[in-house]
Design a protein that fits this description.
Blueprint lengths: L1 H16 L8 E19 L5 E2 L1 E2 L2 E11 L7 E8 L1 E7 L4 E3 L2 E3 L2 E7 L2 E12 L3 E12 L2 E7 L5 E8 L3 E13 L4 E10 L5 E12 L5 E18 L2 E17 L1
Antiparallel strand pairs: 1-2, 1-4, 1-18, 3-6, 4-5, 5-10, 6-9, 7-8, 9-12, 10-11, 11-14, 12-13, 14-15, 15-16, 16-17, 17-18
């Protein structure tokens, strides 16, 4: 309830001071390929966080947005983010996770996949500057899984903690373009409100190609997702996915 009130308060303050820039209903669909390095630690509540050696992995995002000219009603963007990485560690003693106690060599499958539900207002939208402000709810739907590895290398028993809670976040997106060239720089930022150490941002360059029925945007940049939480669904974690991405967006 507190999370809902925070989100509504932020959106209400934006609605009172802004006007919609769109004049017709528009749609955006897109996707990014993200080559991310992963690092971090996690544990169940009450245990010391364990660091794992993660391998780099390919991640991805897809999204859809609907923009309209109705006053005071925010636009909507839904983005699905796939984030998973495998890691390994050698424990120096007994370490409890879930309903099991682990020791010696272990592996993990850490999945921080999530869905962003974003409500935002277009404060500016022209050939030089575009600015969106709003609020978001990042709904987690991943898990942390730990496997015991025997001295012979056989994968044994495992324990898993699922993530199903979410984070209320402030949202901002800005673009600065060069008229006539289609080149623009952009920043997309989500900052946790109830979990202030959770953030998700992108910085990059894009090229827009105008068409008759739709516009095409090609994007490249750098993305950093940090998930630093305490007792989140019974888990304490400090995880980070960061690296370069490339993608495309279609604007109808």
């Amino acid at each position: 309830m507190k999370k809902t009130l925070l989100a509504c308060a932020l959106l209400g303050s934006l609605a009172a001071t802004s006007a919609q820039a769109a004049t017709v209903v528009g749609f955006k669909v897109g996707g990014d390929y993200w080559n991310a390095d992963t690092e971090g630690t996690f544990a169940q509540k009450g245990q010391a966080q364990q660091e794992f050696d993660y391998s780099s992995s390919s991640q991805g995002s897809i999204w859809v947005a609907i923009e309209h000219p109705i006053p005071l009603v925010p636009n909507l963007k839904i983005r699905e983010n796939r984030l998973d990485a495998d890691g390994k560690a050698t424990l120096t003693g007994d370490w409890a996770f879930g309903d099991r106690v682990f020791n010696d060599d272990v592996t993990t499958a850490s999945n921080l996949s999530n869905t962003d539900f974003v409500l935002y207002y277009e404060l500016l939208d022209n050939d030089i500057v575009a600015l969106d402000l709003g609020a978001a709810y990042k709904k987690m739907h991943g898990s942390f899984r730990v496997h015991q590895i025997s001295p012979s290398g056989v994968v044994g028993a495992y324990a898993q903690k699922d993530l199903s809670d979410g984070v209320v976040m402030a949202y901002a997106n800005a673009e600065v373009g060069i008229p006539g060239l289609g080149l623009y720089g952009f920043a997309d930022v989500m900052q946790g409100i109830d979990e202030s150490s959770v953030y998700d941002y992108q910085l990059g360059l894009g090229w827009q190609f105008d068409g008759v029925a739709l516009d095409t945007k090609l994007r490249v940049g750098y993305r950093d997702f940090n998930f630093d939480v305490n007792n989140f669904d019974g888990v304490t974690a400090n995880m980070q996915f960061k690296g370069y991405f490339a993608g495309v967006e279609l604007v109808f």
